[in-house]
Amino acid sequence: MRTDWTDLPEDLLHQIEVETGPIDRIEPAPTGNHADIASTLHTAAGRVFVKAARKLDDRDGPEVTSLRREAAVNPAVPEFAPRLHWQIETGEWLALGFEHVQGRPADFSAGSPDLETLAKTIHAVHQAPCPDAAMAAERRWQRYVDDPAPLASGGVLLHTDLNQDNFIITTDGSAYVVDWAFVTRGAPWLELILLIPWLLKAGHQPRAVEEWVAQFPAWTEAEPTDIDMFTTGFARQWRTASQRRQDAWIARHADLTARWADYRLKR
Questions:
Q1: CA dist 48 to 114, 206, 241, Å?
Q2: What's the pLDDT tens digit per position in 149-190?
Q3: pLDDT score, position 4
Q4: Which of 108, 207, 112 is CA-nearest to residue 162?
Q5: pLDDT at 148
Q6: Which strand (E) or helix (H) includes residue 189?
Q7: Would you state the pLDDT for residue 58?
Q8: How confident is the prediction for the chain on average, in pLDDT?
Q9: To 10 degrees, what angle do helices 206-213 and 248-266 make?
């Protein structure tokens, strides 16, 4: 559950207004769930997107940790991530203020020109420097695979959550990738497997998806057994999540990962 803006401590609100100037209107983000606050602030100087999270009693907690990762990766991806203007840490709160990007969610459906832009962006992301704060793929998924070592091969920067809402297309055709909460270092083909459920959700058939990802050398040069291993583990991860939580979106993602695994492992 998100925290209401008016529930933030006075000191944090004051420090945010020092950065933004007087706030005319606050517009909560309609999607996303990795911060206590995610809102667009409308000010006389323009709009700012703010994410904030509260620490646990004795440590950062997952939401604050994810914001620290976002702040750490931002200087490495200026070409396609909204710029981080400021960060505030006061008391039990961490807040980040980002450049506001006005655009639409990408269209991943078959034939969409956004798919070409997506492919180019994935190539570019994998060339960017990877900050030390990024999660290690072999540790992140070690409980779900038999051998996590291949997940580290290549050690490139991975966004790992390239859904349509996180891939924004502006009116001039520029592309921005937002929500770097799960930035990871690992094998480049992992990004493609993590993207596959979103392509299936957009209406692609598994065979067409496999043909699309085959444009990436990282996919065609990877060991098929490594892809199969992670495909199995990825489906297991979401099946486990769906058994623990009854959220509709989790059940849907579990279905999509299982559909890919069924195709990949039985084809």
A1: 26, 39, 34
A2: 999 999 999 999 999 999 999 999 999 999 999 999 999 999
A3: 79
A4: 108
A5: 98
A6: helix 188-201
A7: 84
A8: 94
A9: 80
**Composition of the chain by helix, strand, coil, percent to 5:** 45, 20, 35
Higher pLDDT, 38 or 107: 107
Place of tokens 């960060």: 87
What is the rounded average pLDDT of the residues 229-235?
Answer: 98
The residue among 246, 231, 243, 166 whose CA lies nearest residue 198 is: 166
CA distances to 34, 70, 163, 168, 191 from 39, in Å: 12, 16, 19, 16, 27
Q: Which residue type is seen at 24?
A: D
pLDDT (0 to 100) of residue 3:
72
Q: How far is CA 265 from the centre of its chain?
A: 26
Q: CA separation (Å) from 260 to 146, 205, 207, 213? A: 19, 9, 9, 13
Only one residue has tokens 């480049």, namely 188
Q: Given this model, what pLDDT does residue 1 score?
A: 45
DSSP string, 41-106: EEETTEEEEEEEEE--SSS-HHHHHHHHHHHHHGGG-TTTSPPEEEEEEETTEEEEEEE----EE-
As a whole number of Å, the CA-based R_g of the chain is 19
- Pair 73, 183: CB distance under 8 Å: yes
Structure tokens at 200: 């299936």
Residue type at position 113:
P
User: Which stretch of 2-11, 16-25, 157-166 has the lowest confidence by average pLDDT?
Assistant: 2-11
**CA angle, 2 then 157 then 125, to 5°:** 90
- Choose among 73, 119, 75: nearest CA to 213: 119
> Would you state the structure tokens that stand for residue 195, as one six-digit string?
């993207």
